[in-house]
C-alpha cells in the first residue's frame, strides 16, 4: 500500500490473485529475524534502564519513560536494520514489475546478496529513517504503556493482570500508530528505492510525499498498520509482563 499507493482492499485482492495465500506470508523469514534482533534489544534495554533509573529516583514521569523508550528504539533499530531492510524489499517485490524485483528467496539469501552487491554498508541502507521510526515507535509505545498502566492502577479500577496489560497495550498501540505511520511511509519509500540516484533523506522524503500527494497521504495504510500493531503490542506486552513476574518470583524473592 505504501509503495503503490493502493487501498487495503485492492492490495489484498491483487496479492491473492497474483500469489495466492502464500503471498500474504512473503517475508516471514526476515520478519522472524527482525523480532529476534530488534524486539529483544529494545525491550531488554527499556526494562533494564527503567528499573535502574527507578531504583534511584523512584516513580518515573511520562517524559522520562518516553525518553527511555526512544533510546531503546534506537538501540534496537541499529541491531535490526539488516533484517528490516530485507523484509521491506521482499514484501515490496510482490508489488513491483518483474524487472525491478530483487527476488530474495529468504533472509539469508537477502543478506548474502546485499553484502555482495552493495557492500557491508548496504545492509544498513535506510538505517537513519529506521532508527527515527524506532525512536518514535518505542517512545510512544513503551512510554505510553508504562504511563497508562500506572494511571489506571492509581484509579483503583484495575489491578495488575492481563486485563490491565491488554487495555494499556491497545492505547499505546494507537498512539504509536498515529505518530509512526508517516515515518514508516517515508522509510518504506527509501528502502525500496530503485532509481540510480541516491535516495532522499527521511525529512526530504516526508516533505516530498506531503507536497506531491497531500498531507493525508502520510497516514496511508493506517488501518492495516494499526490492525497489526494493536495485537502485536498486546501479545508482546502481556507476555513481557508475565515473564517479568516469573523472573521476580524465581530470582528476586528474598530467601527465608
From TrEMBL:
Taxonomic superkingdom: Eukaryota
Ranges for the Solcar repeats: 1-52, 60-151, 160-246
Protein name: Mitochondrial 2-oxoglutarate/malate carrier protein-like
Subcellular location per the Swiss-Prot or TrEMBL entry: Membrane
Phylogenetic lineage: Eukaryota, Metazoa, Ecdysozoa, Arthropoda, Hexapoda
InterPro entries assigned to the protein according to its UniProt record, in alphabetical order: MCP_dom_sf, MCP_transmembrane, Mito_Metabolite_Transporter
Major subcellular site: membrane
Transmembrane segments: 60-80, 161-181
Organism: Bombus bifarius
GO cellular component: membrane
Sorted UniProt keywords: Membrane, Repeat, Transmembrane, Transmembrane helix, Transport
One Pfam family of this chain: Mito_carr
Amino acid at each position: 500500500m505504501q509503495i503503490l499507493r493502493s487501498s487495503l482492499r485492492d492490495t489484498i485482492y491483487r496479492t491473492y490473485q497474483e500469489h495466492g495465500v502464500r503471498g500474504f506470508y512473503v517475508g516471514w523469514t526476515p520478519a522472524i529475524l527482525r523480532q529476534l534482533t530488534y524486539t529483544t534489544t529494545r525491550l531488554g534495554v527499556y526494562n533494564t534502564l527503567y528499573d535502574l533509573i527507578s531504583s534511584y529516583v523512584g516513580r518515573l514521569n511520562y517524559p522520562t519513560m518516553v525518553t527511555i523508550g526512544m533510546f531503546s528504539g534506537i538501540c534496537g533499530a541499529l541491531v535490526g536494520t539488516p533484517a528490516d531492510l530485507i523484509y521491506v524489499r521482499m514484501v515490496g517485490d510482490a508489488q513491483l514489475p518483474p524487472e525491478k524485483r530483487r527476488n530474495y528467496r529468504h533472509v539469508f539469501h537477502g543478506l548474502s546478496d546485499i553484502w555482495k552487491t552493495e557492500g557491508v554498508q548496504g545492509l544498513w541502507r535506510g538505517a537513519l529513517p529506521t532508527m527515527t521510526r524506532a525512536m518514535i515507535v518505542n517512545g510512544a509505545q513503551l512510554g505510553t504503556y508504562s504511563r497508562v498502566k500506572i494511571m489506571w492502577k492509581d484509579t483503583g479500577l484495575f489491578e495488575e493482570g492481563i486485563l490491565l496489560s491488554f487495555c494499556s497495550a491497545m492505547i499505546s498501540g494507537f498512539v504509536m500508530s498515529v505518530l509512526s505511520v508517516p515515518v514508516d511511509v517515508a522509510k518504506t519509500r527509501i528502502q525500496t528505492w530503485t532509481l540510480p540516484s541516491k535516495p532522499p533523506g527521511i525529512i526530504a522524503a516526508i516533505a516530498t510525499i506531503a507536497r506531491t500527494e497531500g498531507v493525508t497521504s502520510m497516514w496511508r495504510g493506517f488501518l492495516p498498520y494499526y490492525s497489526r500493531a494493536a495485537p502485536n503490542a498486546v501479545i508482546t506486552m502481556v507476555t513481557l509482563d508475565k515473564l517479568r513476574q516469573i523472573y521476580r518470583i524465581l530470582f528476586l524473592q528474598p530467601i527465608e
